[in-house]
Design goal:
The protein is α/β, with parallel strands linked by helices and 372 residues long. Helix content is 41%, strand content 19%. Helix 6 crosses helix 7. 48% of the residues are buried.
Length: 372
């Protein structure tokens, strides 16, 4: 039995949307699911207790950052990420590939791996498929990711093809290096840039390796959303129905709806916490920039349809005051709201799928979104 398995509960009769359950060593979680990002073993401004209260099931931590500090050896000494950060539900760690490749001139890619300069102190570092897997085994997440190269946008066909083929070879090396299989699952990452034939090639190669789950990477990297949806429509049918499908780096309501429509189960993104720290709240009608002067005397909650702690207890005017005076509590309230909003939004989509009225849910969402 694999450490992590996917159970299909209901498929929408008119679309590719599906509701399921993800079984992990630290709990069973309903899908579709949004995973808050805790880059450095913490979701910014939030305590584990607050995350659990709002219904978060799995959170994501970043291999690249934890590799640099405090170091995976220290985390392992503390008993792994779950003990280190006192979070007893699911954890997923990315491989660090996206961060490494984002370093641009600070890194050099070879077949063996990637040599890069730390963004912290400029020290020379190296990550290979084996090293990234070793680090993630030490961190002890329930789900870890194969080391890949995120194809940039735009990229010409030859570059994208060479990069995707290297990602496949790296995935094989990750599988061989991954020995912690009783309580940890290694997911493969489909790449291919914006080329359908490369997406097909990557998916077929990875499916042949029989990973317990599959991520779709290299999307939401600057391409038009219509192109991202086109790539999803082409790629998702190439993946097994009995395994989890994870779209990396997506976390705005419009993209979540369209991702679920096309059969995605798992999402993550820093967007909700990042914009919260800039004073922006998420609603079903779009973004609300609470720092704007128009809310100075607005005594309504952020979102009148929301029952999060911030919306139950505080007004836009008060939260704006906190943000303008740079009080930490203001950032916490906007963060609480945004994460609660997205977690609840995913629950609403799941209910719509189970009741087989997801198309109506989507139509209603887009009507509100466009009005907003």
């Amino acid at each position: 039995m694999a450490a992590v398995t996917y159970e299909l509960i209901k498929r929408c009769s008119k679309t590719g949307a599906r509701a399921g359950r993800l079984h992990t060593p630290h709990g069973v979680f309903d899908t579709p699911i949004f995973m808050p990002v805790g880059t450095q073993a913490t979701v910014k401004a939030m305590s584990p207790h607050e995350l659990e209260e709002m219904g978060a099931g799995i959170i994501l931590s970043n291999t690249y950052h934890l590799f640099l500090r405090p170091g995976h050896e220290l985390v392992a000494e503390a008993g792994g990420l779950h003990s280190f950060m006192n979070w007893h539900k699911g954890i997923l760690t990315d491989s660090g590939g996206f961060q490494v490749f984002s370093l641009g001139p600070l890194r050099k890619i070879t077949e063996e791996g990637v040599t890069f300069r730390s963004h912290i102190d400029g020290s020379k570092q190296f990550l290979s498929p084996e090293r990234a897997t070793e680090v993630q085994m030490a961190l002890g997440a329930d789900i870890i990711m194969a080391f890949d190269e995120c194809v940039p946008y735009p990229a010409d066909f030859e570059y994208a093809k060479a990069s995707t083929e290297r990602t496949t070879r790296w995935a094989e090396r990750c599988l061989k290096a991954h020995t912690r299989r009783d309580d940890q699952a290694l997911f493969g990452i489909v790449q291919g840039g914006m080329y359908k034939e490369l997406r097909t090639m990557s998916a077929h190669d990875l499916v042949a390796m029989d990973f317990p789950g599959y991520a779709i990477g290299g999307l939401s990297v600057g391409e038009p959303k219509s192109l991202m949806y086109e790539m999803l429509e082409h790629t998702v049918p190439e993946l097994p129905e009995n395994k989890a499908r994870y779209l990396m780096g997506v976390g705005t309501p419009d993209c979540l709806v369209e991702g679920v429509l096309r059969g995605i189960d798992m999402f993550d993104c820093v967007f909700p916490t990042r914009v919260a720290r800039n004073g922006t709240a998420m609603t079903g009608k779009g973004r609300l920039v609470i720092k704007n002067a128009e809310y100075a005397r607005d005594f309504r909650p952020i979102d009148e349809k929301c029952d999060c702690y911030a919306c139950r207890n505080f007004s836009r005017a008060y939260i704006r005051h906190l943000l303008k005076t740079e009080e930490i509590f203001g950032l916490r309230l906007t963060t609480m709201h945004n994460l609660h909003f997205l977690i609840n939004f995913m629950k609403q989509m799941r209910t719509a799928i189970i009741e087989d009225n997801f198309p109506a849910f989507r139509d209603e969402f887009w009507a509100d979104w466009e009005r907003g």
